[in-house]
Design goal:
The complex is a heterotrimer of chains A (402), B (359) and C (163).
Chain A (H helix, E strand, L loop, with lengths): L9 H22 L3 H7 L2 H39 L30 H10 L11 H18 L17 H9 L1 H12 L3 H32 L4 H7 L17 H17 L25 H25 L10 E4 L2 E4 L3 H20 L7 H29 L3
Antiparallel strand pairs in A: 1-2
Chain B lengths: L3 E5 L11 E7 L2 E8 L7 H4 L9 H5 L6 H16 L5 H29 L3 H22 L8 E2 L2 E2 L7 H24 L2 H7 L7 H7 L4 H4 L7 H4 L20 H25 L14 E10 L2 E10 L6 E5 L1 H13 L5 H10 L3 H5 L1
Antiparallel strand pairs in B: 1-2, 2-3, 4-5, 6-7, 7-8
Helix pairs in contact in B: 3-4, 4-5, 4-11, 4-13, 5-6, 6-11, 11-13, 12-13
Chain C lengths: L2 H12 L6 E6 L2 E7 L3 H10 L5 E10 L2 E10 L4 E10 L4 E3 L9 H11 L2 E3 L25 H4 L4 H6 L3
The chains are: A mainly alpha (402), B alpha+beta (359), C alpha/beta (163).
Chain lengths: 402, 359, 163
């Protein structure tokens, strides 16, 4: 089903845009009677460079601006409603609303609140503790931010909305997400603070023990799908299930149901959400490993937690819930381009945001699990179950049942 | 592995007040603990020697700001014993009603802080939402929500309006339904049980020897409730049962407080029915001489006031016995051998209010 | 005979010469007044023989010619309480500590030392608890001036003699 919104794909669209823009530049230079410079601008190397520049910009802005702000808004509104209050309300009010007076900031849907918080953090002083290890202290936020955005280089949002196609896409995503704990340990150690050291070490122990069930479940999925490429994986899940019209998402097969649950729990632990948020337990360790950071450095560490949640949820959707599969009800063409009514991006984002909402729901309803109990769950319960999943998947594969 | 001292406080988001707890950790295990208090010492005992008997109530209200009516009431009982007066029946019933409503509000504050400590941040908002209803009831009675200045030596300050009984019944009916929900949230949550069962054990003999009283002692299996053991006011005419649990750990103490909230609701409704009409306040004598003491059951334990006077219209010495002050001495023993994350479970289950520790 | 009368009778029979005053405060509460050197004997007897297992409170009072350390005990089995006033001379504020019988005595004794200056002998950990460790005075003593005495007194209050 070619139900994607972008044809042919993101890089192709950016290339067309670049050619238009560089054509304008060439025309300007031609008019200024500098034809050599103008044709240099249209040479293939420069066009490719600008194409990828614009594509990178679009992808980073889509991921780190639009999606990050949306996930933050969803979280803050959802947990406020769970707690029986209205939540963030700073938005642009309807000008014709009867209750509006000039300067009122509590009418609205709340989508400007996160930007306001970002501006507040930007204008604060970036304090570095005097006896902190300066190189590591400054490097830790940079590593977290860059490793999280790196995920979106290979992360497909639909058949045509991707930056590059890599044959080992899922492996790349997992590896990029695993750089996070490394930066957490760096931040905890370099802050020269007993609390952050405890937080960093707790994070190290927890992340290590929960990476293993995560990757074992991915192994089980790979056994059944036969490929690490996200595009192939989603294509495999498009086939109808045993002659019915239901698509055969990976979650519907018995060993993968167990794998889905284990992957979900390991994901909540990897993202440091309550019930597994011991590295930054604010009742015990103030802010945990981010205690010494202030200003926008703290803003980065704090905000990119949600982007990692989005990336993790997206990975879950690709592996188990069929990626961007969904009924495309009609397609009509505009100027020769097919535009579907419910494109694949819509289904992907819907499923991802539903998973994020379930994670938020669980986070705000359950107490925190203690550090040694977290490790006990990870090693004693999740790893044997994950191995069982692999066994089940292997059995299903040899029998050819799925 | 090196052992080092970690300071939890005095600036800490969740230590229920201004005090410092130094713990000696060996990795994640606690080896020793030492509370450091005195940041909130206001000299209440010294100031009450220059104020007349009625004017000290303003000070005793602010001793424990979460449960203020119980402290003023204990002081009034001691001074009435000193002067040898007996207050009218309606005054006693009004005092009991206000005490029990204040006890429910105090336990709800405990629930909010405890839930937030162990990570269940939603419980903070739910418990504070219910507490607002009870603070509204106190406002109807006394005019203020916190530090309400309601008891006087000789009775209470004013009477309740005619529809107070209906308001109480409405609030309590709504609250009991919600209390079922919160008990469910805590007792049926595996994570909560993992965090609180087996943590912070204090056996009955140890508890009595360390001077622990109140819900902390009842969680260790001792059948001691000062409202039943040494009855004061009209508690012996109302039908209620103290809540006792045998397990001696944080979970037992939490369950004791939840059940106490239910019993307090029963006491309020019963007292409203049995309240006789008549005067609620009498004029006490201006001067007094001698010494007297009275022990009452505060929300956190045994609050004892010892008042000595030498014939002047001010007290000569007011001594305040705070329940949590004595419980803090037992805290290092409760904490040894547990992990750093258990500090908040134990501190939360003891229900610390620093105002009464530091006087 | 009330509960406290029985306890008082047993005390009078066991320590006939040590009780300076003894009597009943109200039904269920007895009171004795002793000198400071007999404190340990009497409290031990109260705990072991008479079963007063809970030490509620230790208060220190500064009557201007003597100090008094007032102990309150509770017996949970029948709800009776007992008060022991121990007289301490004004120029030698030492008294024996009760920590080895009731561990609940540690913090109240530290508080009495901190605020009133009464030194408890053989206390395992006698240091200031509420005030800073290097504070030089004992505030609850009567010769430590009150806030109102130390304030600037306005001319109007001086004329009328009000506080």
């Amino acid at each position: 089903m070619s139900g994607s919104l972008l044809t042919p794909n993101l890089v192709g669209l950016c290339r067309s845009l670049t050619e238009i823009l560089l054509g304008i530049v060439k025309a300007i230079f031609d008019a200024l009677s500098l034809p050599g410079l103008g044709s240099w601008f249209m040479s293939p190397g420069v066009v490719v460079f600008f194409t990828y520049l614009i594509a990178t910009l679009v992808m980073v802005m889509w991921a780190a601006l639009v999606n990050l702000l949306s996930v933050m808004w969803v979280e803050r509104k959802l947990y406020s409603r769970i707690q029986d209050r209205r939540g963030i309300m700073l938005g642009v009010p309807w000008p014709w609303s009867k209750k509006y007076k000039r300067g009122m900031t509590n009418l609205g849907w709340g989508f400007l609140q996160n930007i306001a918080d970002g501006v507040k953090l930007l204008q604060k002083e970036n304090i570095t503790p005097a006896s902190a290890d300066k190189l590591l202290f400054h490097a830790a936020p940079a590593i977290i931010v860059s490793s999280t955005i790196m995920v979106f280089a290979v992360f497909p949002f639909s058949e045509n909305f991707y930056y590059t196609k890599v044959a080992l896409g899922v492996l790349f995503v997992l590896a990029a997400l695993s750089l996070g704990p490394f930066a957490i340990i760096l931040a905890g150690y370099s802050s020269n603070n007993k609390y952050t050291l405890i937080g960093g070490l707790r994070a190290a122990a927890m992340m290590l023990s929960y990476e293993i069930p995560l990757i074992l479940c991915v192994v089980a999925v790979v056994l059944l799908s036969g490929t690490l490429d996200p595009f192939q994986m989603v294509a495999v899940q498009e086939r109808p299930l045993l002659g019915t019209i239901v698509p055969s998402w990976n979650v519907f097969s018995p060993p993968q149901m167990l794998g889905f649950v284990i992957f979900f729990i390991a994901l909540v632990a990897e993202l440091e959400r309550i019930p597994f948020d011991i590295p930054e337990a604010d009742a015990e360790l103030v802010e945990g490993w981010t205690t010494e950071y202030g200003g926008m450095r703290f803003g980065f560490l704090f905000g990119f937690k949600w982007l990692r949640a989005f990336a993790g949820a997206g990975l879950l959707v690709i592996l188990y819930l069929g990626g961007w599969n969904g009924p495309v009800f009609a397609t009509f063409s505009v100027l020769g381009y097919p535009i579907p009514i419910l494109p694949q991006e819509f289904w992907f984002l819907l499923k991802t945001y539903l998973v994020v909402m379930v994670i938020i729901w669980i986070s705000w309803s359950i107490p925190r699990v203690r550090a040694d109990q977290v490790l006990k769950i990870g090693w004693n319960r999740l790893i044997p179950l994950a191995l069982l999943t692999i066994l089940g998947a292997a059995v299903f594969k040899t029998m050819g049942w799925f | 592995m090196a052992e080092f001292w970690v300071n939890m406080g005095p600036q800490h988001p969740m230590t229920h007040g201004l005090w410092n707890l130094r713990i000696k950790v060996d990795g994640e295990t606690i080896v020793d603990a030492e509370p450091i208090i005195g940041y909130l010492h206001r000299g209440v005992e010294k100031i009450s020697e220059v104020r007349e008997f009625q004017k000290v109530i303003v000070l005793t209200d602010r001793l424990c700001y979460v449960s203020s009516i119980t402290w003023s009431h204990a002081y009034c009982l001691a001074v009435e014993e000193l002067m040898g007066i007996e207050i009218p029946e309606r005054g006693k019933y009004l005092r009991v009603i206000s005490l029990e409503i204040q006890r429910i509000a105090s336990h709800l504050m405990w629930l909010a802080a405890f839930g937030a400590d162990i990570g269940l941040l939603t419980m903070l908002l739910y418990a504070l939402r219910e507490r607002e209803l009870f603070l509204d009831l106190i406002e109807i009675m006394a005019g203020l929500r916190l530090n309400s200045n309601y008891t006087r030596v000789g009775g209470v300050r004013n009477d309740v309006p005619a529809d107070f009984e209906k308001s109480c019944q409405r609030v309590i009916a709504h609250f009991l339904k919600k209390l079922d929900e919160y008990e469910d949230m805590m007792e049926n949550s595996k994570t909560f049980l993992m965090r609180t069962q087996g943590i912070g054990k204090l056996s009955k003999e140890d508890a009595i020897n360390w001077g622990v009283t109140g819900p902390n002692l009842r969680g260790s299996g001792a059948d001691v409730d000062l409202r039943r053991t040494i009855p004061y006011e009209v508690y012996d005419q109302i039908d209620w049962e103290p809540a006792i649990e045998k397990d001696c750990d944080c979970y037992a103490r939490s369950i004791v407080r939840m059940r106490e909230m239910r019993e307090s609701c029963k006491i309020v409704l019963d007292a409203l029915k049995k309240m006789p009409p008549g005067p609620y306040r009498m004029k006490p004598p201006r001067r007094a001489e001698g010494e007297a003491f009275r022990a009452t059951e505060d929300s956190r334990g045994e609050a004892l006031f010892y008042v000595a006077a030498d014939g002047d219209d001010r007290p000569y010495r007011v001594k305040i016995r705070s329940p949590i002050f004595c419980t803090l001495a037992a805290v290092p023993q409760m904490m040894r051998g547990h992990k750093v994350a258990d500090v908040v479970s134990i501190m939360g289950s003891i229900d610390i209010c620093v105002g009464e520790i530091d006087k | 005979m009330g509960v406290e009368e029985q306890a008082l009778a047993k005390l009078r029979e066991r320590f006939p010469k040590l009780l300076l005053e003894s009597g009943s405060v109200r039904p269920g509460v007895g009171r004795v007044k002793i000198d400071r050197k007999d404190l340990v004997e009497i409290c031990f007897y109260l705990k072991e023989e008479l079963g007063y297992e809970h030490l509620s409170c230790i208060s220190a009072v500064d009557w201007r010619d003597r100090y008094e350390c007032v102990y309150h005990f509770t017996r949970y089995s029948d709800g009776s309480m007992f008060q022991v006033n121990a007289i301490i001379p004004h120029d030698d504020p030492h008294i024996e500590s009760l920590c080895k019988f009731w561990r609940s005595a540690t913090y109240p004794e530290r508080e009495s030392y901190d605020l009133m200056g009464i030194v408890f002998d053989h206390q395992p950990d006698l240091r200031r608890i509420l005030l800073p460790p290097d504070y030089r005075f004992f505030p609850l003593r009567k010769d430590f001036p009150q806030e109102v005495d130390r304030q600037y007194i306005s001319r109007r209050k001086l004329k009328t003699g009000g506080v």
